[in-house]
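Archive transcription. Copying these from loose printouts into the bound notebook so they stop getting lost. Printout 1 of 2:
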Amino acid sequence: SDDAARRLLDEHPESAVARRALRDIEVQARARQAEGLLREAEASLAGGAASKAAELLRQAEALGRRSEDLGRRVAAAVEADRARAEDARVRHVVELLQSADSVAGVEAYLGLEEGIRARVRAASPSSLLGWADEIGWWGTGSRAREVGQALHALSQAVDAADRGDSDAVLDLLIPFEEVVGKLRRARQLLAV
């Protein structure tokens, strides 16, 4: 019927009936396409692919078909996925901070949003976090790596000071004085 309406319109471009028939066919085709997208969204949601379901739902809505119930369920699943991903990021950073690679832990911490940093602080007793917060620099890249290395050196300097090794304290802190020089604890150690 789509082809017949198009042929009729080609043969009689002035035909209002042919234009209306073609428009009706196109509306029905969009409705079928939207229904198919909603079915695919349901299947994606059932399969645990919330972000794919959300995209399919957006496509169906762009075609004029809405499903409030499916929209609510997709939004809840997307939020649950986001929360799981955030939990995993928190666990990962806490594990890094507890490992021998605390530099990577600080580096990862500096790249987090404030809300997630707060969760890491609540989950980790690491003094490195307090020092990172005191420095107040947030981001990623080479500067984050430098801050991580400086705070790791400060931690080692605290241990060296506890052992009474003032030479090791200076050796550890002087290369990072620009980064840790603002920190009260570093200033105390450098003043010895």
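Printout 2 of 2:
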Amino acid sequence: KITADTAGGVYVAWEVNGGLSGTRIFLSKSVNSGDKFDRAIDIKSYCSGSGDISRDVNLITGGDGHTYIAWAEEWPALNNISEVRLFTEKEYLCRSVSNTVISKEGVYSPMIQLSSDKNVNIVWAQGENGKPKDIYYKKKNPVNLSNTPLSDSSDPLIGFDGSLTVNVAWVEQTADSGKREIKVARSTDGG
């Protein structure tokens, strides 16, 4: 994944299969519009154990020279339960976002955005392996946006319209007809 800010910063994050040590996530940045990049850092050394699998990396910049990375962290030893993890470069801190270890569910396709007040907003698909998934949104506490137990929801996107309107779109495959439809949820109070 790649992103840039208005000051000429270019940020790149990628996954590397580390074999038995699991998947690693690296971050490198350039302060001169991509002419030269800093040495890549392994962000998982701040927040993950050996053997974990990382996937679906998403990256944004805060416009303040800091980056935010979200991804799905999966544990093969726990029957592939996964959770959304968030790394903030400003504090070199990593935390869990989805709390799916308790529900024993998996997460897929986390997307991250900053609102105009610089708050992190995340959406993702979540569900038990092989069963329909729902779309979750989190600014403070996770909220199930799709809440359709018989339909399979996937591929969430998030964006902002003005300073307070949060828009989330996703693909939903209905159980009765099997048709795929685009669904949208909107919050006009900042989430």
